[in-house]
Amino acid sequence: xxxxxxxxxxxxxxxxxxxxxxxxxxxxxxxxxxxxxxxxxxxxxxxxxxxxxxxxxxxxxxxxxxxxxxxxxxxxxxxxxxxxxxxxxxxxxxxxxxxxxxxxxxxxxxxxxxxxxxxxxxxxxxxxxxxxxxxxxxxxxxxxxxxxxxxxxxxxxxxxxxxxxxxxxxxxxxxxxxxxxxxxxxxxx
Amino acid sequence: xxxxxxxxxxxxxxxxxxxxxxxxxxxxxxxxxxxxxxxxxxxxxxxxxxxxxxxxxxxxxxxxxxxxxxxxxxxxxxxxxxxxxxxxxxxxxxxxxxxxxxxxxxxxxxxxxxxxxxxxxxxxxxxxxxxxxxxxxxxxxxxxxxxxxxxxxxxxxxxxxxxxxxxxxxxxxxxxxxxxxxxxxxxxxxxxxxxxxxxxxxxxxxxxxx
Lengths: 189, 210
What we know:
The complex is a heterodimer of chains A (about 190) and B (about 210).
Chain A: H1 11-18, H2 22-41, H3 47-68, H4 77-97, H5 116-134, H6 138-149, H7 154-161, H8 165-188
Helix pairs in contact in A: 2-3, 3-4, 5-8
Chain B: H1 3-8, H2 11-16, H3 22-32, H4 36-53, H5 75-94, E1 111-113, E2 122-126, E3 131-136, E4 147-153, E5 158-164, E6 173-178, E7 186-194, E8 201-209
Parallel strand pairs in B: 1-3, 2-8
Antiparallel strand pairs in B: 3-6, 4-5, 4-7, 7-8
C-alpha cells in the first residue's frame, strides 16, 4: 500500500531518472513525495511550506544526480533524498529566523490545485481509508479516536484502559495491522 | 536505526504517536527513507491516523450497551471461556488424554498466570479427573497471527501443546488442561510462540497433583 510498482533503487533506476523517463519520474515523485510529506509535516506548519520544501528537495536531488551522472551507491538514493531534505529544512529555518514570524493562527491554505487525476486518486484512497477504518472493531476505533481525533493525553488513556504505554503501542500496532489488511483487501477487490 | 531495531521497538507506532526524541526521530527517518518495508509500514500508520483525524473512525451508529475496555476482565473472559470449552474439548481428544466430553455448561475458576519475570510462581492443584484452567496474561506480547503453546515439565518432557487464535486485545489466553496431563507434582513451563516464530514468551508454574 499504496500499490506502486516496486522499483529497485539501482544504477539503472537512477539513469532513467537522469534521462527523465516519465514512469520513473512519476514513481520517484510519488514514492518520495509521500515520505517527504510525512517527514515535513512534523516540522512545517502550512501545506504550502511543505509543498515548497518537497519540490525544492526534488529539484536539488535531480540536479545533483544529473551533475554527478549518478550516485556512487545507487541503493543509498533514499538516504540521499533525506539528507537533501534536511538541508532544505535547515535553510528554511535559517531564513525564517531572519524574518518576522506570522501570528500562530495564520496558516493560509495552499491555493495551488492538484490535477484531476491526483484528485480522483486521492478521493478513491480516502474512500478506502474510510472503509478500512469502519471495518475495525469498535474498541479499536474508539482508541484511535481518543488518540488522533480527540488527541487525549496518552497517560490518561492508559489509566482509563488500565494498560501501560508499551501496551498502548501494541494496541496501535494491532489496529494498524488490521487496517492494513482491510485496505489491501479493498485495493485488490 | 537498524531495521530489526525499528521492528522490535515498534518505531512506526512511536513515530506517529509522537513519542520519539528528536534524535531518534531523525534516525528513524534516515532508516525509512532507505527501507521500503519500514517506509510502507509508517505510511500505513500515517494513512490510518490521517483517516481518523478526518473523522472516518466514527462510533458504531447503534450502540446497545456501551462497551468499555475495563470490563474486559469479565465479558471477554466469558466469551473466551465458551470458545475455549469447545477448543478444550477438541484438544482432549487431540492429545489422547481423558477423552472427557462436555454435555453441559462448565463453570471455570481460572488462575491467572503471569510471565516468568513477575513475582512468585503460581501454584495450581490438578485434581484427578478435573481440569486446570489458566488465564494467561499476555501483557504486551504480540501474537498477531495466532499462538502456538507448549507445556513441559522440568525435564523438558511435553505435557501438552497446540495452536490457538490470539485473544482480542487486553484479554488473556484461556487454557484448559486436563489434570492427567500432569503426571507428577512439580514445576512446569508454558511457552507461547507467535505462529511466525518470533521470540517465545515463557511462563512457569507449580503443579500440585492430587
